[in-house]
Design goal:
Strand order of the largest sheet: 3-11-10-5-6
Number of strands: 11
Low-confidence stretches: 1-15
Helix content: under 10%
Distance between the termini: 62 Å
Mean pLDDT: 93
Order of helices and strands: HEEEEEEEEEEE
Radius of gyration: 18 Å
Shape: globular
Strand content: 15-25%
Number of helices: 1
Largest sheet: 5 strands, mixed
Oligomer: single chain
Length: 232
């Protein structure tokens, strides 16, 4: 009985250490309810992250679409609510992918070389000489801005937080992510890029994925994926 109770307590602790991002916030206003414009992820109950960055789940970690599409003005500030504290160290990154003509955000799967990165975060050193990232140990992801030059239209907006506490071992970085269905309005005439595929943009041995964060300086860490497109 004692072993059983210990196992239950360990399982509960593991769930509390993990998280999902069920609700998009646009200019301070969250979507009406969880998984309304954000596609419910496969880990909605378990909260476990993805450890294989070449898996098909690395795109949106979902097996279903969401019922609604959120309107997001170009230049808007966005972030996501988290179900638990984002307590693992590692970067938060945001990507967009434009829905092709003839499809819609409620149907499209985001396949192909269509994703471009619009934001990432970099670490600093805390008082304990450990790397720490913006919004670590909070219940929201860090803010990002939809570039004003982003063309109008429907998109998938992807957030990911890469937990690096075990990343000194291959395939032990943990990816926590979600995709939201949005319609960007009042957009510009920019040409987003570079465009990448997910899966395809990451490899297990990328230096931002296979890394010992206890053995590097903050400036030595490079997040995985393409360069950030800021609209310039």
């Amino acid at each position: 009985m004692q072993l059983s109770l210990a196992s239950l307590l360990l399982s509960a602790a593991a769930v509390q250490a993990h998280y999902t991002f069920p609700r998009l916030v646009i200019n301070g206003k969250p979507e009406d309810k969880d998984w309304s414009v954000t596609r419910m992820t496969k880990n909605a109950q378990s909260k476990t992250g993805i450890e294989n960055p070449t898996s098909g789940d690395i795109r949106c970690y979902s097996s279903q679409t969401a019922p609604n599409v959120a309107t997001v003005p170009a230049g808007a500030t966005i972030h996501f609510h988290s179900t638990q504290q984002i307590n693992h160290p590692g970067p938060t990154q945001y990507y967009l992918a434009k829905v092709p003509a003839g499809s819609s955000a409620t149907r499209w799967d985001g396949s192909g070389a269509v994703w471009f990165k619009i934001a990432t975060t970099t670490p600093t050193m805390d008082k304990n000489k450990q790397l720490t990232w913006p919004n670590q140990n909070t219940y929201t992801t860090v803010n990002a801005t939809i570039p004003a030059a982003t063309p109008s239209g429907e998109y998938l907006l992807r957030v990911e937080q890469i937990a690096l506490h075990m990343a000194m071992q291959a395939n032990k970085a943990q990816f926590y992510l979600a995709c939201s269905q949005i319609s960007i309005t009042d957009g510009g005439n920019g040409t987003p890029g570079p465009l990448v595929s997910l899966p395809g943009a990451y490899r297990s041995n990328d230096p931002g994925i296979l890394v010992n964060i206890n053995a590097i300086a903050p400036t030595a860490y490079t997040p995985p994926g393409p360069a950030v497109w800021t609209g310039n």
